[in-house]
Amino acid sequence: MSRLAEFRKLEEQLAQQLAELEALKNDSALKKEIEFEEKLRALMSEYGVDVRGLIAVMDPEYRPLAKKAQTGSGPRKAREVKVYMHPKTGERVETKGGNHSILKAWKAEHGVETVESWRVQ
Question: Which pTM value belongs to this model?
């Protein structure tokens, strides 16, 4: 793309964004929201309350998602080892998850419920 074409494209985008900005400046709902925010910030400043303090007052039960993860009961519990034994062949499979290739083959051939009935531990 030539520099002139790039310039005109950017100029057109800028004009479009300026038109959107002018439309927003005349939006009464936006004006009310801005006024509310200004009054709320002034009130918070007057009483020395920050956003966290305001949230604590308005919703004491609120816990951010990041905090919930941090306040967990420590590291994840290790997965238990599951042992399956094929009744006809005597083949034994030990796995901590369901992504074991032999176990998948058994489930595809014999069905999930049947293979689960072969579980030893």
Answer: 0.42
